[in-house]
Write a structure and sequence with these properties.
With 333 residues, the chain is an alpha/beta fold. It has a domain at 8-185 and 219-246 and 281-297: 3-Layer(aba) Sandwich (Rossmann fold). Helices cover 36% and strands 16% of the residues. The strands form 4 sheets. Strands 3-2-1-4-5-6-11 form a 7-stranded parallel sheet, sandwiched between helices. Strands 7-10 form a two-stranded parallel sheet. It has a two-stranded parallel sheet with strand order 8-13. The protein is built from 10 helices and 13 strands. Strand 1 (8-12), helix 1 and strand 2 (32-37) form a beta-alpha-beta unit. The two termini are 33 Å apart. Bound molecules: nicotinamide-adenine-dinucleotide (NAD) and uridine-5'-diphosphate (UDP) (2 copies). Residues 12-13, 15-19, 37-42, 62-64, 77-81, 85, 96, 118, 120, 176, 178-179, 185 line the site of nicotinamide-adenine-dinucleotide (NAD). One of its GO terms (molecular function) is NAD+ binding.
Length: 333
């Protein structure tokens, strides 16, 4: 790589699920990567295989405190992402989103760095339009159990938009829809990790409600492609950009598919629907495609097989129906 295109890049939340894949991609591209994390939900095991790379550096730090480093680009991913994790300490979740955004924007302003924000489809709440487009303002409960995350991320978007307008900061706001793959935390309570662990250990798959609520799942490799493409655009798009796979599926069907790819004989057990659980979610990604040429390319069953291989190693299951999968975890926590 030419020296000119080699950048110093800060990834906050770099030891988490998405962050570790992003660090890996940027290290492979030859950039100098500074991975910052307080290990709240992330793990050193996720980035252990990068520690010997000369262009990778790990820093324990909490994004709610100021950080003075010299970088060219910032990817701000630090924030617990699963409902179980972000509701565990909801005040800290809002602080992480809001104070974290202020600190990283202040840093971007001082060093004139380009800055990416990992926002979320949760800014749409329980949406009244379908599929969701970026100009939809959302339908969010400001005082419910999900609000610490939803409103924290909405306020972070406001800060990014205002730092752009007021200080000319070059921003990229990605509204990330449900993403899955290897290195998801096995106990984060998210649907794919729950179903994988349950299927691989012979437990019933816990479908909340009647399982007819939908999500649209994007495989992690596709999502990381989108992050890098969005960051590489020559100019700030001036609008948040939806990133996700538009393939919409019900929770009952994903339970059945998980049983299929793992070859499990687990049953399905129905449990109460959590409060404020969004009913439907599907991204309209035409803006992302128009701006970057990106569309996700991993079919759901292929992604689930790769994910099953990872969880099989975690669960100590020797073999699954995912025997044609390519991904093997580097470390088993
Ligand atoms: P994750 O929990 O695996 O990763 C988050 C990382 O941030 C962890 O490593 C955690 O330790 C770290 N972190 C948390 N609080 C911190 C703090 N105060 N200071 C420093 N580090 C801190 O979750 P993920 O799925 O990798 O999500 C990454 C980002 O993407 C999050 O901002 C999340 O909101 C966003 N996102 C993810 C999804 C998804 O489906 N995975 C969907 C929408 C948005
Ligand atoms: N900040 C940081 N690193 C820097 C510069 C700023 O962490 O290199 C933090 C600092 O906590 C500051 C915040 O970013 O309060 C916002 O910075 P800004 O310059 O926008 O506003 P300030 O509060 O300094 O007036
Ligand atoms: N869900 C489920 N069983 C589980 C975990 C989750 O049926 O064991 C449902 C949950 O109620 C929601 C969907 O799966 O409707 C996605 O949940 P997740 O926590 O993964 O993501 P989010 O709700 O934040 O999109």
């Amino acid at each position: 790589m030419k020296e000119l295109s080699r950048k110093r890049i800060l990834v906050t939340g770099g030891a988490g699920f998405l962050g570790s894949h992003l660090c890996e991609r940027l290290v492979m591209q030859g950039h100098d990567v500074l991975c910052m994390d307080n290990f709240y939900t992330g793990a050193k095991d996720n980035i252990a295989h990068l520690l010997d790379c000369a262009n990778f550096e790990l820093m324990r730090h909490d994004v709610t405190f100021p950080l003075y480093v010299e970088v060219d680009e910032i990817y701000n991913l630090a924030c617990p992402a699963s409902p179980v994790h972000y509701q565990h300490d909801p005040v800290q979740t809002t602080k992480t989103s809001v104070h974290g955004a202020i600190n990283m924007l202040g840093l971007a302003k001082r060093v004139k760095a380009k800055i990416f924000q990992a926002s979320t489809s949760e800014v749409y709440g329980d949406p009244r339009i379908h599929p969701q487009t970026e100009n939809y303002w959302g339908h969010v409960n400001p005082v419910g159990p999900r609000s610490c995350y939803d409103e924290g991320k909405r306020c972070a978007e406001t800060l990014f938009a205002d730092y752009r307008r007021q200080h000319g900061i070059d921003t990229r706001i990605a509204r990330i829809f449900n993403t899955y793959g290897p290195r998801m935390h096995p106990a984060d309570g998210r649907v794919v990790s729950n179903f994988m662990m349950q299927a691989l250990t012979g437990q019933p798959l816990t479908v909340y409600g009647d399982g007819s609520q939908t999500r649209s799942f994007c495989f992690v490799d596709d999502m990381i492609d989108a992050f890098v493409r969005l960051m590489t655009l020559p100019a700030d798009p001036g609008s948040p950009v939806n990133l996700g796979n538009p393939h919409e599926i019900s929770m009952l069907e994903i339970a059945q598919r998980t049983i299929g790819v793992t070859g499990s004989s687990s049953a399905i057990a129905f449990r109460p629907l959590p409060v404020d659980d969004p009913w439907r979610r599907q991204p309209d990604i035409s803006l992302a495609t128009r701006l970057t040429g990106w569309t996700p390319c991993t079919p759901l069953d292929d992604g689930l097989r790769k994910t099953a291989r990872y969880f099989a190693a975690l669960a100590g299951t020797a073999r699954t129906a995912a025997d044609d999968a390519l991904v093997v975890p580097q470390q088993v926590p």
